[in-house]
Structure formats: structure tokens, C-alpha cells
Write a structure and sequence with these properties.
4 helices; single chain; about 35% strand; Beta-Lactamase; alpha+beta; about 110 residues; 5 strands; 5-stranded antiparallel sheet; globular
């Protein structure tokens, strides 16, 4: 079901490591699933200028449970494998099991 979604669906664990990457994420960002699974998300889809803020936000969320971006839509820039930067809409939803997992829904803001 998640592989047939029109949006990129990506999940990371509480260390920021990619645990799921759907087919649409492959199409939008250019990275194959096997290339990103088990690696830090910020290395693949985040332009350099956002990486530090992402890591700080993850630490704050894990330490306090507080964040500004959960369950909201945020317009930011994404990074493709070929190095092009493009506008995306991001929404993040937490799923708590034995470890915290964050589910990212990403969608190009135009026909990118």
C-alpha cells in the first residue's frame, strides 16, 4: 500500500536512520531503496544548509518530546541524487512503538 502512494513516504528511527523508503521516494529523490536504508536521512534528501537544524530538531524531540514540525505541513527544499534542489512540502508524524519512529510524507510543491 505504501509503495503505491502518490507521495514519498519515508520513516526514520530515533537516530535519524532510514527504516523505510517507498517507490515514490525513489522517483522523487532518485535514490534507490537499497542505497538509503540503514543510513542517516539528512545525507540524502536534505540540502546542506538544513542538515544541522534537522539534527538539532531530532535531538530536541528525543530529549523533550517537543518539536515545531510534527503534524504540520512545512515548505522546505529537498535534494535529489543528482544534486538539484527543489521545493517540497513536508509533514512528519510520530509513531511510537518500542522505539520512536518518525514518518515523513514528502511531496513536490509543483511538477518537479
Amino acid at each position: 500500500m505504501l509503495d503505491s502512494a502518490f507521495d514519498a513516504i519515508v520513516s526514520i528511527d530515533d537516530e535519524g536512520t532510514v527504516t523505510f523508503w517507498n517507490k515514490r521516494a525513489e522517483e522523487i529523490f532518485g535514490w534507490e531503496r537499497y542505497e538509503v536504508l540503514g543510513n542517516p536521512l539528512h545525507q540524502f534528501i536534505m540540502p546542506e544548509e538544513y542538515r544541522e537544524a534537522h539534527q538539532k530538531g531530532m535531538r530536541r524531540y528525543l530529549d523533550t518530546g517537543m518539536t515545531k514540525v510534527l503534524n504540520q505541513r512545512v515548505e522546505i527544499s529537498g535534494l535529489r541524487k543528482d544534486g538539484t534542489v527543489f521545493p517540497i512540502e513536508l509533514s512528519i508524524a510520530p509513531i511510537v512503538r518500542s522505539k520512536k519512529t518518525l514518518i515523513h510524507r514528502l511531496h513536490p510543491r509543483s511538477d518537479q
